[in-house]
TrEMBL record:
Protein's UniProt name: Erythrocyte membrane protein 1
Annotated keywords: Coiled coil
Keyword Iron listed: no
Chain segments carrying region Disordered: 701-812, 1175-1257
Compositional bias (Basic and acidic residues): 1175-1190
Species, as recorded: Plasmodium falciparum FCH/4
Duffy-binding-like domain ranges (all copies): 305-450, 560-707, 1055-1160
Gene Ontology molecular function: any one: host cell surface receptor binding
Domain Cysteine-rich interdomain region 1 gamma per the UniProt entry, residue ranges: 494-544
Length: 1257
């Protein structure tokens, strides 16, 4: 979520012409939509909603008897009251809840996936892309409407208007050109999307198909409306919804524009140049809406919006690239490789040099990924457009779409004609950086930035992929330059490089013989390079250059080598990941034979041979030309791979626990030759990686050799995930394998499906579509495999403890890494769980003992931590399998741990900013030590998840907890007595995996959005005692399981005591400091036996004020204790704790504070939880001290005045001095002046009233 609202920009953005796609679509729809409103008016009395009659059923408010009238002004609707959402937290009922309110984020991506967009079927048909704005449309409240709470057209209108109001507010607040006509355009697009939702035309399915649920509920609502109105019985569902929208759309537009600032106006430009403008506030006060985009097919609107957003964001990203590579004042000249092009040519011949411009490399890499992804999205939508026009003749499903497409086809007979309109939009004509936008010229529009070129080579000039020849260049030598290249070393260098970048659709003839049967390499291609010296620079030319696939024709050899390294490491990591699917545990005597593995491992072996040749050629060139040695080369290479973006590639290539500096050759190192006495030589990084992969190949081929011992492999492993291009992320489908039947369900072969979205005409669409359908409908992916031997398991990217690496079951860390990879949004949330201080730190809850939606009211107090517990994956558990439940628990526990740690560090940072305590605890974690204070939070959290699973949770079990409970009960129905045993068996089997998921989450860096391998490696190191079997508190001998079994009330009460002691210490320490200046006597001579002090002194006055604040703070905690103490007393009397792990401690503790006195030191032995040690000083004075009541004995820490203050809160003035002996009568002698003065002084003091006796502040 963005941090600031947008600034006003009262202009019409850019130079949008009448030929822009938006204006074209607005014009066509006027000619084609017909008189829908007229037809709808026949049913106006049944379908036109009346807001004043709308009813909302917010469960918590209904239960509490809170009623909020529906306002007469639709702009006064309040999401807190006017909703059916059941969330207990009012902010969580916001229609934008769990949406990114920065709807125009520069990092926001469109969604083009076939699983997220309806009608995105076969790839040959292209597909639509839902804009980021649509992805986060504020309709959370609609997820809660159904036929039971939305019974009439009035009720439906009320809910839709709430959606529209807050959707409009979100658009206005964050629009990059707030105050301009573009705000109205964005509102019109959301208006149209809301209309599509109502009419059942919306193509966006969303994550977990939440939007499909809305559609199903709307069908039920409209069906209910129809059944209750005989006049509607002859209408189809399609017509009822269409007419409802036609009759209510004006109210929706008014609600949508409530937040418009007043300066915006919507406009439509005609061919003659005139513009039709709406009234201010985007026409909020008008009865006739100017826009008709809601009658334009959604795909065309989205395509138009996609182009506008592309132009807007492209300008921003190119600006960042320019700044990184040229500087704000053009003071830099950096290349895409990170080199400083102002250095001399001689310097550039040093291949493995330090990178002077790392930010340029990062910016260019990021832009390259983005622009290539955008080109794929464009091609996908362009293809979709062609199919929409083509299929229009047979498309009779919609009322007016057929006529619209027919008209569109007449005016724009080819796709290129329509694409031409996309460049006429506001953002595509305004402030263009680099080349002008022209979507019919893809090479220019989607090319890499001109700021990201390599350093220039002499005077070589290239345009549209054509360059002048090297032979045309005349060398000019600078005096003093040494000629490093001798004639004998100036040989031409020819190298062929294999690229597996999926930029071709079929293999070239020269590669078919090698890779024709290889699924992984079916789109591999070859670059032919020829390098030679020119003007003291080693220059390489690509002989088979293709400007649609390749970057530059000419590069210096250092650039070529660097790119080769990136290509190699990227391909190596992919192959290594996929190869693991075919490699069984080498220590097992038995093995599983899987069809397809042998063939594909053999293909990888061929790839290794080719890459080894390429690498040897590169090494020979480098060593030969620079007269170096292998050892020098290896050292320089290792240093080079630590720079720029290489570390992220290298980290995945290395073995677990391995660093680049400690990288060693494995057993494949050349064995010393006993005949000639040669020893094993030190190989470079790339050679070592190739050798390791070669070893994996040998293992693979030995395990999966078909017909070996008459054992024929009949089954393939699960298909590999296809790579989906979504910005920088990579979406990977999980493969579920059920135990004990080791089964996998697909027979497509290893490594099938590794193709890009745009691969369309290879005849594989139906197969892929079938596969995707099976994924959606089948809980497990199954197929018979041959025994003996366990199933193949993927090797995790993070090291896993052996305890839960069960064959066929996905390791916890793999689940966590995959879950964390894609689910982030701009709020920092992961899927639908949010950081603890979201949305604001001030909103973080305190202990709650009274909220009837949280607690039962029997005396328990729910911790703040527990109130924010992440349960989303359990709430929305759609699959009813044991493994899916396991994954849901692991995901929830991991996210919860991650956000708890983030909060813990933030709290530590604020605890004492000067000491950088957040860095201290992070350092502890990095070394494998979980801070004791945080470890306790993990124990408390683990225990709560256990209670939810066993249904021993003592909360009110509403909202998320209820949903989670119901999902678990579906798997273990309480009606079956055997399920109690089955639950225990399930927990015993998976409890360690849940804990490991929590440990894995601790290695996740929330700022960098990456996992830190070193942290995880240290955390699971046996010596650090963090594994499930060994982890304990320091000083507490209870294991994690024993602790989690302790009754939940006692755990919460203990957690309360720990929190109270900590916060009380902070308060008391501050109070002692504030009262330092108040001096008291050592005696108790004050009124009522108090200490005495000068109560009117500045120090004592300030002290009394602070004591009063402390007493007010303490009252809340006294209330907490009173409720919990009473529950403890009653539960103890009823023997609730008998036969539990707490029985001994409870039996020896009559009063609640005595129990805390026993257990708190075990939790925090450093003395920070010792505030329950002493008994209150008031207890001896109570007449009922021995009574059997819960509050007969209280802890001293709840006294109004802390003992640490030593009476300063209650001190009173000293008593007046006593009269001297014999001074009662009047002196017979003469009075002196001094006597009179003394008498007056005494009398004056006696007249000063004593301060009231204070029992605390």
């Amino acid at each position: 979520m963005g941090s600031q609202t947008s600034k006003f920009s009262k202009t019409v953005v850019g130079n949008e012409t009448h030929n822009s796609a938006r204006n074209v679509l607005e014009k066509i729809v006027l000619e084609t939509k017909g008189n829908i409103k007229g037809k709808a008016n026949l049913y106006k009395d049944k379908l036109k909603g009346n807001l004043s009659k709308a009813k909302f059923y917010q469960p918590l408010l209904v239960e509490a008897g809170v009623k909020k009238d529906v306002p007469s002004n639709l702009c006064d609707l309040d999401y807190i009251f006017h909703t059916n959402a059941s969330d207990k937290n009012s902010e969580d009922r916001h229609p934008c809840h769990m949406r990114d309110r920065n709807r125009f984020s520069n990092e926001g991506e469109a969604e083009c996936g076939s699983d997220k967009i309806r009608d995105n079927g076969e790839r040959s048909a292209g597909g639509a892309c839902a804009p980021y704005r649509r992805r986060h449309l504020c309709n959370y409240n609609l997820e809660y409407i159904n036929e039971n709470n939305t019974k009439t057209t009035d009720d439906l209108l009320g809910n839709i208007l709430v959606t529209a109001k807050y959707e409009g507010a979100s658009i206005v607040e964050k629009h990059p050109n707030r105050g301009s006509s573009e705000v109205c355009t964005a509102l019109a697009r959301s208006f149209a999307d809301i209309g599509d939702i109502i009419r059942g035309r919306d193509m966006f399915l969303g994550n977990n198909k939440e939007k499909e649920k809305i559609e199903n509920n709307l069908k039920d609502i409209f069906k209910n409306i129809q059944q209750n109105n005989k006049k509607l019985k002859d209408l189809t569902d399609k017509h009822i919804r269409e007419y409802w929208w036609a009759l209510n759309r004006e109210d929706v537009w008014k609600a949508l524009t409530c937040s418009a600032d007043g300066s915006e106006d919507y406009f439509i430009q005609s061919e003659d140049g005139t513009k039709s403008f709406s009234d201010r506030k985007c026409g909020h006060y008008e009865n006739n809406i100017l826009t008709n985009l809601d009658y334009v097919p959604q795909f065309l609107r989205w395509f138009n919006e996609w182009a506008e957003e592309f132009c807007r964001i492209r300008k921003i990203k190119l600006g960042k690239v320019k700044n990184a590579c040229r500087g704000e004042k053009d003071e830099k000249d950096c290349s895409r490789e990170g080199y400083d092009c102002k250095r001399t040519d001689l310097k550039k011949n040093e291949i493995f040099m330090d990178l002077e411009c790392p930010n340029c490399e990062k910016a260019c890499t990021s832009y390259k990924e983005w622009i290539e992804n955008k080109q794929k999205e464009f091609k996908k939508q362009k293809k979709k457009y062609e199919k929409e026009i083509e299929n229009n003749q047979s498309n009779n499903d919609r009322i007016y779409d057929k006529k619209f497409y027919t008209n569109l086809n007449v005016k724009y007979p080819s796709v290129s004609n329509f694409v031409e309109t996309l460049k006429e939009g506001a953002y595509c004509t305004n402030g263009i950086i680099e080349s002008k936008i022209d979507f019919n010229k893809q090479y220019d529009t989607f090319s890499h930035s001109q700021y990201c070129k390599p350093c220039p080579i002499f005077n070589l000039k290239c345009a549209n992929g054509k360059c002048n020849s090297l032979d045309d260049i005349t060398c000019t030598y600078v005096k003093g330059f040494p000629n490093r290249i001798t004639d004998k070393n100036n040989d031409a260098f020819v190298i062929d490089i294999l690229l597996n970048d999926n930029k071709i659709k079929k293999l070239s003839h020269d590669l078919k013989d090698v890779f024709n049967e290889c699924d992984l390499f079916k789109r591999i291609r070859k670059q032919n390079w020829n390098c030679k010296y020119k003007c003291n620079l080693d220059v390489c030319e690509q002989k088979n250059y293709n400007n649609e696939m390749d970057d530059e024709r000419f590069v210096s050899i250092d650039v070529l080598i660097k790119r080769w390294l990136k290509y190699f490491l990227n391909d190596y990591n992919q192959i290594k990941e996929k190869l693991n699917r075919c490699i069984n545990n080498e220590k097992k005597k038995e093995f599983l034979c899987i069809k397809g593995c042998y063939k594909n491992c053999d293909c990888v072996e061929k790839w290794i041979t080719k890459k080894r040749e390429e690498w040897q050629n590169i090494k020979d060139r480098y060593i030969k030309q620079y007269i170096s040695k292998d050892e020098v080369f290896s050292s320089k290479l290792k240093s080079f791979l630590k720079q720029g973006l290489f570390p992220k590639y290298i980290e995945n290539a290395l073995d677990p626990d391995e660093t680049l500096d400690k990288m060693k050759e494995s057993s494949v190192c050349n064995v010393p030759n006993k005949l000639n006495g040669t020893s094993c030589k030190n190989n470079d990084v790339i050679t070592i990686l190739l050798n390791r992969l070669k070893e994996k190949i040998k293992t693979c081929k030995s395990q999966h050799e078909e017909n070996k011992n008459n054992n024929s492999c009949k089954t393939s492993p699960p298909p590999l995930p296809r790579r989906r291009h979504q910005g920088r992320r990579r979406v990977v489908r999980s493969v579920r394998i059920r135990r004990p039947r080791q089964v996998v369900k697909n027979d497509r072969g290893l490594l099938v499906g590794e193709e890009e979205e745009e691969e369309a005409d290879n005849g594989g669409d139906q197969e892929v579509k079938k596969e995707e359908k099976e994924e959606e409908e089948t809980p497990e992916e199954e197929a018979e495999v041959e025994r003996p031997g366990p199933p193949v398991t993927p090797v995790p990217e993070l090291p896993q403890p052996p305890a839960t690496t069960t064959p066929g079951v996905k390791p916890p860390c793999d689940i966590v890494k995959e879950h964390f990879k894609d689910k982030h949004d701009n709020t920092g949330g992961i899927e639908k769980c949010y950081p603890k201080y979201y949305p604001r730190k001030i909103d973080y809850p305190g202990w709650n003992c009274t909220n009837e939606t949280l607690v039962s009211g029997k005396g328990e107090c729910m911790p703040p931590r527990r109130q924010k517990l992440c349960l989303i994956n359990l709430q929305h558990l759609t699959e009813k399998t044991s493994d899916d439940l396991r994954k849901a628990f692991i995901k929830c526990a991991a996210v919860e741990t991650c956000f708890l740690w983030h909060k813990y560090k933030e709290d530590k940072k604020n605890e004492n900013p000067s000491k950088n305590l957040d860095e201290v605890v992070q350092k502890q974690l990095k070394d494998g030590t979980i801070p004791e204070e945080f470890k306790r939070q993990m124990f408390y959290t683990f225990g709560d998840y256990r209670d939810i699973f066993f249904d021993t949770d003592i909360s009110k079990k509403q909202g998320p907890v209820k949903d989670a409970k119901n999902k678990i009960d579906e798997l273990f129905p309480t009606t079956d007595p055997k399920n109690k045993t089955k639950r225990q068996e399930w927990w015993n089997e998976h409890k360690e995996a849940i804990w490991e998921g929590m440990l894995c989450a601790l290695s996740y860096d929330t700022n960098e959005k990456t996992f830190k391998k070193e942290i995880h490696t240290n955390l699971i190191d046996a010596k650090n005692n963090n594994t499930y079997a060994n982890v304990k508190f320091s000083g507490n001998q209870s294991t994690l399981e024993e602790f989690a079994k302790r009754p939940q009330f006692l755990r919460w009460f203990t957690e309360w005591g720990e929190d109270f002691c900590k916060k009380r210490k902070e308060k008391v320490d501050k109070l002692v400091g504030e009262c330092n200046s108040c001096t008291i006597s050592d005696s108790t001579g004050g009124d009522g036996g108090t200490k005495t002090c000068q109560t009117d002194s500045t120090g004592c006055t300030k002290c009394r004020e602070e004591c009063k604040k402390y007493k007010e703070w303490l009252e809340t905690w006294k209330g907490h204790y009173d409720k919990q103490s009473k529950k403890y007393f009653n539960d103890k009397e009823s023997k609730t704790f008998q036969s539990t792990s707490a029985e001994v401690d409870v039996n020896s503790s009559k009063h609640a504070y005595e129990y805390l006195k026993k257990v708190l030191p075990k939790n925090c032995p450093n003395g920070s939880c010792s505030c329950m040690d002493a008994e209150s000083k008031d207890t001896p004075n109570k007449t009922n001290a021995d009574d059997d009541t819960h509050n007969a004995n209280m802890p001293a820490s709840l006294d109004n005045e802390p003992q640490e203050l030593e009476g300063k809160c209650s001190c009173t003035p000293p008593p007046p001095p006593k009269a001297q002996p014999g001074g009662a009568g009047r002196s017979l002698g003469p009075r002196s002046k001094e006597d009179d003065e003394d008498k007056g002084e005494v009398e004056e003091k006696e007249e000063t009233p004593a301060a009231e006796v204070q029992d605390g502040p």
